Amino acid sequence: MELRKIGGTCEDDNCPTLYATDRGTVIVRGLVVSDAQALTQLGLPTGETAVEVPVELLASFHAGA
């Protein structure tokens, strides 16, 4: 899978980031959600996980799109 950085919140690539893939999908890098209440509300199936990113990451990507 090829990745291309399309958004981030810092310059050193060690923070929440968005990547476009050669599959026509997006990978979101962020902190894994471990809050039990949030995970219960999400009801994630096996094989899925949730990550938390700052709103600014998505807002800056949307503004540039």
UniProtKB/TrEMBL annotation:
<protein>
    <submittedName>
        <fullName>Uncharacterized protein</fullName>
    </submittedName>
</protein>
